[in-house]
Amino acid sequence: MRIDIITLFPEMFEGPFSHSIVKRAIEKGLAEIHLHQLRDYSTDKHKRVDDYAFSGGAGMVMMIEPVARCIAALKAERGYDAVIYTSPDGQLLDQPLANRLSGFNNLILLCGHYKGVDERIREHLVTMEISIGNYVLSGGELAAAVISDSIIRLIPGVLTDESSALSDSFQNNLVSPPVYTRPRDFNGWVVPEILLSGNERIIEEWKYNQSVERTKIRRPELLND
User: Fold this and answer.
1) Which of 3-12, 136-145, 153-162, 175-184 is predicted with the least confidence, judged by mean pLDDT?
2) Where are the domains of the chain?
3) CATH of segment(s) 2-152
4) How many whole angstroms separate alpha carbon 105 and alpha carbon 89?
5) DSSP alpha helices (H): ranges in 55-162?
6) Which SS3 state, helix, strand or coil, does residue 23 take?
7) Which parts of 31-181 are beta strand (E)?
8) Taking Cα atoms as reference points, which of 213, 63, 87, 202 lies closest to residue 144?
9) H/E element holding 206?
């Protein structure tokens, strides 16, 4: 999988993509992430990529021309399955969406900034808009990092134990059951005996019931879905 990220702040991705699972995926050759500085596609002598809104009001708007040039340059080299804009009013990122995106080969992620982007970008250049939650960030870089991580970890071969992803929270619209490790007894807080029984069928049934009960208490809206 290749992910091309269009951003004003490529340095913000150095941390998230230089460690852990994403780094491992890149080193294995299972994922590529390429960062593109949007200012490089500006013809303005000051490399401006924003301007005042025609309607007036507070805040600047990202201009269509640099974005269009960058996307056109990328598309001239390869085909893309989706051009994604990180937007507060986009489709909410959830596990089924991450699962679907992980099957794509090439993605473009456009990071918004300021008061947003020229609406014509959304109308004619973007094919999908994604939000990571009902709140506003200073820019789309953190959202793009979250989206990338949620996708890349699902690529076959990235995780040491591929079955691990199948038992993640939200894969079956349930949160994960509680998990324990050694020691069996810590300050009198003991691991449930059923997990030590060795009976796989009973253990799996216990885990499922725990997931259902935990979802009812903590995330009941998932059961409504």
Assistant:
1) 153-162
2) 2-152, 167-224
3) 3.40.1280.10
4) 25
5) 64-75, 95-101, 119-124, 141-152
6) helix
7) 32-37, 50-52, 60-62, 82-92, 106-111, 128-131
8) 87
9) helix 200-218
pLDDT in tens, 31-49: 999 999 999 999 999 999 9
Q: Which two tokens stand for residue 184?
A: 């069996």
The pLDDT value given to residue 56 = 81
Chain center to CA of 32: 15
**Of 101, 104, 222, 105, nearest in space to 171 by CA:** 222
The CATH number that domain 167-224 falls under is 1.10.1270.20
For 62-85, write each residue's pLDDT tens digit.
Answer: 999 999 999 999 999 999 999 999
Which neighbouring-strand residues pair with 3? 33, 107
How far the first Cα of the chain sits from its last, in Å, is 30
C-alpha distances in Å from residue 95, one per residue of 34, 47, 102:
24, 38, 10
CA distance readout (Å), 182 to 103, 108, 185, 190, 196 = 36, 43, 8, 10, 11
